[in-house]
Write a structure and sequence with these properties.
The protein has helices at about 1-15, 20-25, 35-50, 90-105, 120-135, 155-160, 175-180, 185-195, 215-225, 255-265, 280, 285-290, 310-320, 330-350, 360; strands at about 50-60, 110-115, 140-145, 165, 200-205, 205-210, 230-235, 270-275, 295, 320-325. The protein is α/β, with parallel strands linked by helices. Strands 1, 2, 3, 4, 5, 6, 7, 8, 9 and 10 form a ten-stranded parallel sheet that branches. Strand 3 (about 140-145), helix 6 (about 155-160) and strand 4 (about 165) form a beta-alpha-beta unit. Helix 1 packs parallel to helix 3.
Length: about 400
């Protein structure tokens, strides 16, 4: 079997992505074969990206109260999940949040807002934020994720300096009606097409672990090929309480790794990002996953906390990788960021407490779901992420 994986990888290195049947064989390979699979697939990652890791940083511009009913989402219509809910950040606060991520090694900032899609006024607001961020930070890439785009909006965002637009396909077209009823798979394809035709780089990926079959995982990757996604975030389902997918635990670290390998072999030269839920499902395999993926989100996600930014940078350094656009070694950046963060935290801790702090800042960090004994193929406890209570929308410093 090692020879088969090596042959698939060699063809991918030569410009011939894995076929659907080959990728399905990858997904259905055994745990005993996994290290052979990773060894073969890592050659493809090295071929196209060397030893570089791209760091992305999320800024949640507007959180909660979305009118869509996506079954996986803590911000969905009718959700009672206790996530932070707040209106648009100010331009100054958006820039401040972005610069935390940039100082932590990010070369791309991802500006995200909940909702079905932006109004033209919202697009103008985000455009001003982008101009401000890029003026203060020459060379930074900005990705926007604002939902479905209407006529002219993609062009306005591009003109303001937005480099990429994120709109995930999430799952296979055949599985889409199982996770959402307020829009269709084709609606999502339409927005990615608008972004690409306006000159923005299409960023679109997956959420796995939502009850899809192996064949539907392959179908979803083929969908990403069809829309020519440049950057592919792979999210692993976080089964929030009070959502239709609460209590869904279908992924093991080994299965999660096989999915990453299938994406890499089918999309050899595309940025592949380990995204939300990686701490929960990849667990101790996270460092090894960077030999397949070449990108990650630093720190926290939209509504849940990630592992510490220090731990993210440790993975990069300990894996022998360097950071895209850093201008210094990964180890030097990590140590500098750590020293700066410690001094910042000391200064923050020394400030007198506010007499009337915002209610959400006093709230305890809550688990996003109920603990379970084990996930598919796992003998250990599944770590349950906690709801984000720091960074954007709060007075607490972010995890960056």
């Amino acid at each position: 079997m090692f020879n088969i994986f090596s042959e698939i990888a060699e063809r991918a290195c030569a410009g011939h992505p894995a076929t659907a049947d080959e990728a399905l064989a990858v997904l259905q390979s055994t745990d005993d074969q996994l290290l052979d699979l990773v060894a073969a697939t890592s050659k493809v990652r090295r071929q196209h990206f060397g030893n570089l890791v791209k760091i992305n940083y999320l800024v949640n511009l507007k959180s909660g109260l979305c009118p869509e009913d996506c079954g996986y989402c803590s911000q969905r219509l009718g959700s009672e999940t206790d996530v932070l809910k707040y209106p648009w950040l100010s331009q100054a606060d958006a820039q401040r949040q972005a610069e935390f991520g940039l100082s932590g090694g990010a070369s791309r900032v991802c500006l995200v807002a909940s909702g079905r899609g932006p109004s033209n006024r919202d697009v103008g607001k985000v455009s001003n934020m982008v101009t401000s961020i890029k003026s203060a930070n020459p060379g930074v890439e900005v990705c926007a994720c604002l939902g479905f785009l209407k006529d002219g909006q993609a062009e306005t965002l591009k003109a303001s300096g937005v480099d990429a637009y994120n709109h995930n396909l999430n799952t296979a077209e055949s599985h889409y009606p199982e996770i959402c009823s307020t829009h269709t798979f084709d609606d999502r394809v339409d927005t990615v097409t608008r972004a690409r035709e306006a000159g923005m780089s299409p960023c679109s990926g997956l959420i796995v672990g939502m009850g899809e079959t192996d064949e539907q995982v392959i179908e979803a990757i083929q969908g990403l090929q069809a829309i020519d996604s440049d950057s592919i975030p792979v999210n692993f389902l976080i089964p929030f309480e009070d959502t239709p997918l609460a209590g869904t635990y279908e992924l093991s670290p080994q299965k999660s790794m096989r999915i990453l390998c299938a994406v890499r072999l089918m999309c050899p030269d595309r940025e592949l990002r380990i995204a939300g839920g990686r701490e929960m499902h990849l667990r101790s395999w996270q460092p090894l996953s960077l030999h397949i993926a070449n990108s990650l989100f630093l720190g926290d996600y939209l509504t849940v906390e990630g592992q510490t930014a220090d731990a993210d940078l440790d993975m990069v350094v300990d894996g022998g990788f360097e950071i895209v656009g850093a201008g210094e070694s990964a180890a030097e950046l990590r140590d500098r960021v750590r020293a700066h963060r410690n001094s910042h935290q000391q200064a923050f801790d020394s400030e007198p407490a506010s007499d009337n702090p915002p209610e959400q800042d006093n709230a305890l960090s809550l688990p996003c779901g109920k603990p379970v004994g084990s996930s598919a193929g796992s003998d250990g406890d599944v770590p349950i992420p906690t709801i984000r209570r720091r960074g954007a929308g709060t007075k607490q410093i972010p995890n960056a």
